[in-house]
Amino acid sequence: MWGPEGLDEVEAELLGPAEDLKGRDVLEIGAGAAQCSRWLAAQGARPVALDLSHRQLQHALRIGGSFPLVCADAGALPFADGSFDLACSAYGALPFVADPVAVLREVRRVLRPGGRFVFSVTHPIRWAFPDEPGPEGLSVSASYFDRTPYVEQDEQGRAVYVEHHRTVGDRVRDVVAAGFRLVDLVEPEWPAWNSSEWGGWSPLRGGLIPGTAIFVCERD
Fold first, then answer.
1. How many whole angstroms separate alpha carbon 43 and alpha carbon 202?
2. Is 27 within 8 Å of 48 (Cβ atoms)?
3. Mean predicted confidence (pLDDT) in 133-158
4. Is this prediction's pTM over 0.90?
5. Distance between CA 110 and CA 89 in Å, rounded?
6. For the residues 32-54, what does the mean pLDDT come to?
7. How far is it, in rounded angstroms, from Cα 87 to Cα 57?
């Protein structure tokens, strides 16, 4: 699943047709509990699930799966050049780093020539609106161009959660600066069947403004 709208890879085929994934080496970045890797393994691919959070990978281990789990920084991937055919990231890693180009360059390094990297993030336009599912979430409340990170702190003032805002143009320039070719930018529409409402996500908002941006990149 690429985002809260419900666009799944079976339908989207952004990594390619499911039947073509068999035997492919795939790196999932910011894997969390490795849901994407589990699906990839079911298609016959050889995934590796990577995340910075040891706790998230513990969840993945409890759920199970016959593929490697790697605890590492996406900006310093512990793999040799050209180790993977494909890479993917669904809301993982990239929104949470101050230097996304460093991550993108690392992903490009570990991909084989012709390799594809597909990643999804919160659509940048959402940063201008309150994170509310109802009508109050439809009025612009902040500058789209304000790149100040969103930070949550604990009682001691230590940052426990940080998310960085990039405009659409920033994301495109990051992809190009890392040496990728941008093949597609997908903005999934909210489907009629999805009646879910949680956090800032809802059919009301999803029918009016995009919530997810999916970047399809290739290493030439």
1. 31
2. yes
3. 95
4. yes
5. 14
6. 97
7. 18
The whole-number average pLDDT for the span 89-95 is: 96
Mean pLDDT over all residues of the chain? 96
Q: How far apart are CA 198 and CA 201, in angstroms?
A: 5
CB atoms within 10 A of CB 74: 23
Nearest-angstrom CA–CA distance, 170 and 7: 24
Domains in the chain, start-ordered, CATH in brackets? Answer: 9-218 (3.40.50.150)
H-helix segments, 54-208: 54-63, 100-110, 168-177, 203-206
Distance of alpha carbon 44 from alpha carbon 39, whole angstroms: 9
Residue 7 near residue 188 (C-beta atoms within 8 A): yes
pLDDT digits 0-9 by tens, 163-189: 999 999 999 999 999 999 999 999 999
The CA angle 81-83-84, to the nearest 5 degrees, is 125
Contact 108, 178 (CB under 8 A): yes
And the tokens for 149?
């990170």
